[in-house]
C-alpha cells in the first residue's frame, strides 16, 4: 500500500479525494458539470450510433480522417465569409468532409490502394494543408489550432448564452443548443434511413440490385459524419474519433442485433461521459481526454466481463433478443 | 413454352456486353438470350467471368458498349421482377443480424426497405424460410450458421422478393447433397410457375441434369442454348481447354442420362 502511494506520488497522480472527485462536481460545480455532461451526451450518443455503422462498414477510422481534414475547410470558409459563426463553419466542414470522401473513393477506385491507405493519404495531406493555412493566415484567422486539436469541454458552460433558458440552470450555452440540434437531426436521419443503412452495410451488391443507390447512401453518411465531427470539434477536438469508435466497440460484446447494439452503444456513451467528468476532476486533466480514457477503460472492462460471461455460459447477455 | 417464347421478349437478354476491371477486359462481346420459364446454368472455369456476367446484368458493374434487357426492358423498369443471389462469401457473416432480419431485406424491394417490416412481410419471410427448410433457424444469429445454411438464407431472401427472374451465383456451393436436391426441386417449382433462373454452376456432372439451358463461358461466349445442343464434349473442351478425356466422358454420361430420361 505504501509502495503504491509512493509510485502514485512519483507519477504525480492526485490523491483520490472522494468528496472532491465524486460529490463536488454535482454540488459546488454543478452549474458547470450539468452543461459539460449534457454536451458530452448530446455529442456522444449520435456519435455512438453513427460509429456503429462506420464500424460495420469497416470504416471505423473515417471519423478520425474527417476530423483532421475539416481543418482546411474551416480555414477557407473563414477566409471567404470572415465569420466564425455556426453556419459558415458547418458549411466549410461539410464541403471538406465530402471532398475527403470523394478523394478517398477516387484513390481506391483508380489505383490498387485499399481504403485504409487512401484514407491515410487523404487526411494527412488535407490536415497538413490546414496547418499551412492556419500558419500562413494566422494574423487573420482566429482559429485556435490547439482548440481544434484537443477541444475544450470546460469552455462549454462559459460560452455565449443562447436565448433559451433552462429553469433554475439559467441560460443554455449556445454550443449545447447547436449540439442538441445536431443530435436531433442525426438521430432522425439514422432512424429514417435505418434499413437502407443496414442493407447497404451488410450487402451492398444486394442493396444495389434492388435499386438502392449505395453510393448515395455512403456519401450521405459521410456528409452527416462531417457535420457531427465539426459540431464536436470545439468541445472534444480530434478525440471525436473515440466517441465514434469506443461505445459501439464496447456494445458489440453484448449485442447480436442492431437494435440492441445501438441501445447499448448509447448507454456506454452516457456512462463514459459521466465517468469521464469524474475522472477529469480526479486527474485534473481535460474532460474530453478523460471521457475518451474512460471509454477505453470501459471497453477493456466490458471485454473482460463478456469473456467471463461466456465462460460461465451466461448466454442471455450475449444472445439476447435485443 | 416454345410458342410463348416466340412472342414474349426473353426474360434475360444481353447483346455485345464487354466488361473490364482496371482496363483489363474480362468479358468480350457477350450475346445471350434466355427465354422465360427456363433453368439456365452458367458454366466455365475459375476466372471465366461468370460472376462478372451476373453482376454486369444486375447493373453492379459498368458495361462497356452493348446492352442488357430483362423482359425486353432496361433493368430499372422491371427491378421488382428480378432477384439477385450474390456469392455467399461476398458478405461479413459476423454482422449483427439474425436469419429473419436477412430474409426481411428481400420483402418488398427498395420500397419495403424504406418502411418497418409489416406482419405481411414477416409472413412472407417465414414462407420463404420454410421453402428452404430454414424456418427453425429464423431467430439464429447469422454467425452461427454453417456455410450451407448461409447459402439457404440467401436463397430465402431472394425467394421473399417473389421475382420472375433470379440470378444466382453458385447457389449450391457448400450445400449438402440432400439440400441440393431439395433446392433443385424448389427451382423446378419456380420454373413451373413461369419463373426463370440463371445460376452459376461448377459441377459438370449435375449440370445437364439440373438445367435445361446452359451458357458456356470463358471470357468470351463459347456457346449458349439448350443443354442437348450445347453440353457436348467438343464445346466443353473449348470452354475448359485441354483435359479432353474427363470432359468427353462427362458429355457421354450426360448423353446417356438424357437417353434414359427419353429426351
Ligand atoms: N474486383 C476485381 N478487380 C479486378 N479484377 C477482378 C475483380 N473481380 C474479378 N476480377 C477478374 O475478372 C475475372 C473474372 O472474374 P469472375 O469473378 O467473374 O470469375 P468467375 O467465373 O466467377 O470465377 P469463379 O469460378 O472463381 O467464381 C478474373 O480473371 C478475375 O481475376
Ligand atoms: Mg464467381
What does this entry look like structurally?
- The complex is a heterodimer of chains A (322) and B (263).
- Chain A is mainly alpha-helical and 322 residues long.
- Chain A has one domain: ABC transporter involved in vitamin B12 uptake, BtuC (Orthogonal Bundle).
- Chain A is built from 15 helices and two strands.
- Chain A has a two-stranded antiparallel sheet with strand order 1-2.
- Chain A is globular and about 60 Å long.
- The model of chain A is unreliable at 316-322 (pLDDT under 50).
- Chain B has twelve helices and nine strands.
- The relative contact order of chain B is 0.16.
- Chain B is globular.
- Helices cover 40% and strands 21% of the residues of chain B.
- The model of chain B has no long low-confidence stretch (mean pLDDT 90).
- Chain B is of the alpha/beta class.
- The interface between A and B is medium-sized, with 25 and 31 residues.
Amino acid at each position: 500500500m505504501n509502495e503504491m502511494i509512493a509510485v502514485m506520488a512519483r507519477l504525480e497522480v492526485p490523491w483520490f479525494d472522494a468528496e472532491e472527485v465524486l460529490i463536488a462536481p454535482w454540488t459546488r460545480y454543478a452549474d458547470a458539470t450539468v452543461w459539460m455532461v449534457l454536451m458530452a451526451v448530446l455529442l456522444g450518443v449520435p456519435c455512438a450510433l453513427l460509429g456503429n455503422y462506420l464500424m460495420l462498414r469497416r470504416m471505423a477510422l473515417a471519423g478520425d480522417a474527417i476530423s483532421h481534414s475539416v481543418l482546411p475547410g474551416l480555414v477557407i470558409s473563414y477566409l471567404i465569409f470572415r465569420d466564425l459563426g455556426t453556419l459558415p463553419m458547418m458549411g466549410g466542414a461539410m464541403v471538406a468532409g465530402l471532398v475527403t470522401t470523394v478523394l478517398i473513393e477516387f484513390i481506391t477506385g483508380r489505383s490498387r490502394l485499399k481504403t485504409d491507405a487512401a484514407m491515410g493519404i487523404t487526411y494527412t495531406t488535407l490536415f497538413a494543408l490546414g496547418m499551412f493555412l492556419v500558419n500562413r493566415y494566422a494574423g487573420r484567422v482566429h482559429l485556435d489550432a490547439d482548440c481544434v486539436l484537443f477541444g475544450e469541454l470546460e469552455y462549454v458552460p462559459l460560452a455565449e448564452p443562447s436565448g433559451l433558458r433552462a429553469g433554475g440552470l439559467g441560460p443554455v450555452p449556445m454550443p449545447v443548443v447547436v449540439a442538441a440540434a445536431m443530435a436531433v437531426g442525426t438521430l432522425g436521419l439514422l432512424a429514417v434511413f435505418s434499413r437502407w443503412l443496414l442493407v447497404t452495410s451488410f450487402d451492398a451488391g444486394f442493396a444495389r440490385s434492388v435499386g438502392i443507390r449505395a453510393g448515395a447512401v455512403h456519401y450521405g453518411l459521410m456528409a452527416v459524419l462531417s457535420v457531427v465531427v465539426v459540431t464536436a470539434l470545439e468541445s472534444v477536438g480530434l478525440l471525436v474519433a473515440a466517441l465514434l469508435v469506443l461505445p459501439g466497440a464496447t456494445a458489440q460484446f453484448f449485442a447480436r442485433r442492431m437494435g440492441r447494439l445501438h441501445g447499448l452503444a448509447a448507454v456506454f456513451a452516457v456512462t463514459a461521459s459521466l465517468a469521464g467528468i469524474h475522472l477529469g476532476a480526479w486527474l485534473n486533466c481535460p474532460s474530453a481526454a478523460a471521457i475518451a480514457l474512460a471509454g477505453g477503460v470501459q471497453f477493456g472492462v466490458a471485454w473482460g466481463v463478456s469473456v467471463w460471461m461466456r465462460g460461465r455460459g451466461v448466454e442471455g447477455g450475449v444472445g439476447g433478443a435485443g | 413454352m416454345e410458342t410463348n417464347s416466340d412472342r414474349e421478349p426473353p426474360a434475360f437478354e444481353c447483346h455485345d456486353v464487354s466488361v473490364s476491371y482496371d482496363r483489363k477486359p474480362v468479358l468480350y462481346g457477350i450475346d445471350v438470350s434466355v427465354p422465360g420459364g427456363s433453368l439456365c446454368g452458367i458454366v466455365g472455369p475459375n476466372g471465366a467471368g461468370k460472376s462478372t456476367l451476373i453482376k454486369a446484368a444486375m447493373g453492379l458493374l459498368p458495361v462497356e458498349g452493348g446492352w442488357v434487357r430483362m423482359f425486353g426492358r432496361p433493368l430499372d423498369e422491371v427491378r421488382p421482377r428480378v432477384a439477385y443471389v450474390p456469392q455467399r462469401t461476398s458478405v461479413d457473416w459476423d454482422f449483427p443480424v439474425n436469419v429473419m432480419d436477412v430474409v426481411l431485406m428481400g420483402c418488398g424491394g427498395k420500397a419495403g426497405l424504406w418502411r418497418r417490416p409489416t406482419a405481411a412481410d414477416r409472413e412472407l419471410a417465414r414462407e420463404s424460410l420454410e421453402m428452404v427448410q430454414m424456418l427453425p433457424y429464423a431467430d439464429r444469429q447469422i454467425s452461427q450458421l454453417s456455410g450451407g445454411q448461409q447459402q439457404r438464407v440467401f436463397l430465402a431472401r431472394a425467394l421473399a422478393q417473389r421475382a420472375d427472374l433470379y440470378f444466382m451465383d453458385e447457389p449450391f456451393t457448400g450445400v449438402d447433397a440432400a439440400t441440393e436436391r431439395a433446392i433443385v426441386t424448389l427451382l423446378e417449382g419456380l420454373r413451373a410457375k413461369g419463373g426463370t433462373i440463371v445460376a452459376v454452376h461448377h459441377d459438370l456432372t449435375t449440370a445437364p441434369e439440373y438445367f435445361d439451358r446452359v451458357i458456356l463461358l470463358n471470357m468470351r461466349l463459347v456457346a449458349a442454348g439448350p443443354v442437348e445442343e450445347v453440353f457436348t464434349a467438343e464445346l466443353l473442351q473449348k470452354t475448359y481447354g485441354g483435359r479432353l478425356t474427363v470432359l468427353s466422358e462427362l458429355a457421354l454420361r450426360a448423353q446417356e442420362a438424357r437417353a434414359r430420361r427419353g429426351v
